[in-house]
Design brief:
The chain has about 280 residues and is an all-alpha fold. It is built from 15 helices and no strands. The radius of gyration is 21 Å and the shape is globular.
Length: about 280
């Protein structure tokens, strides 16, 4: 019973967002109220201790809050200046004939690269994917699913250092242990993205690219371990993902770049703003 009640706020938040259709901030406040009620009424926590703990958590989360706020400001500026349209025109030239590769490229490769430089894919990518013609649900769901796996990948140096110190083993040994799960983890994330985007048909089409996703992440981890640049793990993985996707498209005789899908608005966005000025 203690185990279930300790996790009671999570289903409260999910109910508010999925069933009640409330915004994230309202659902978060209600979840916090549920956690406060359970801790005080059932576990016997002193109300002052609960409030002080909540205040401490609020202060500790300010850096993440600032990242989200600044990312939203960045997206707004990019939309107003036309940078989103310019970046979308670039992505439209990539893998127009293979929807599976495009989904994985946006969900995995771009998410890893954004996470590595400190950006938040779930804030930046939805606007780009909407401009590419994806439905609102997919424009939000795919970056979230990709970010769930790629956030761990891009920040792999942090848990690796913790495990190394906690277990009393070297970083090299830690990376060798974690690398055993890297292929299956990212292969599974890729399959989930494909399933949400297009069901069984897209999963069948993207089996090989999904396997290449897991392979590239595994090789990126080994490369970071070999070079000793553990904090660049996500960067290595992102570059390898882009490389294997481009190689796969070339081997399957897809045109790169393919400008046949560009509309007049895309051509106008290219004319008005160069790519270096559009990339944040």
């Amino acid at each position: 019973m203690d185990f279930l009640l300790a996790r009671y706020p999570l289903p409260v938040i999910l109910f508010c967002m999925v069933v009640w259709c409330r915004s994230a901030d309202v659902s978060g406040v209600l979840g916090w109220a549920a956690a406060l009620a359970v801790s005080c009424l059932y576990f016997g926590t002193d109300p002052q201790v609960a409030l002080r703990s909540s205040l401490s958590g609020l202060v500790a989360s300010l850096p993440v809050t600032m990242i989200i706020i600044l990312s939203m400001l960045q997206v707004t500026l990019m939309e107003q200046t036309g940078a989103i349209k310019r970046i979308s025109a670039l992505f439209k030239c990539f893998s127009t004939g293979n929807q599976a590769v495009r989904v994985l490229f946006l969900s995995c490769a771009v998410s890893i690269m954004l996470s590595t430089i400190g950006a938040v894919p779930i804030v930046l990518l939805p606007s780009v994917m909407l401009a590419l013609g994806y439905r609102v649900f997919l424009a939000i769901a795919l970056p979230v699913m990709g970010y769930a796996g790629t956030c761990i990948v891009s920040l792999l140096g942090v848990p690796a250092v913790f495990l190394s110190r906690f277990g009393g083993i070297s970083l090299h040994e830690t990376y060798l242990i974690l690398s055993k799960y890297m292929f299956l983890t990212n292969f599974g994330v890729a399959l989930c993205c494909l399933w949400v985007a297009g069901g069984r048909k897209l999963v069948r089409q993207g089996l090989i690219p999904a396997a290449l996703t897991g392979l590239a992440c595994w090789l990126g981890m080994l490369l970071a371990d070999w070079s000793g640049l553990y904090t660049f793990t996500g960067f290595f993985m992102g570059l390898l993902l882009i490389g294997v996707y481009v190689a796969y498209l070339a081997l399957t005789r897809n045109r790169l770049p393919d400008r046949s899908s560009l509309a007049l608005g895309d051509l106008e966005a290219e004319r008005r703003r160069s790519l270096p000025r559009a990339v944040p």
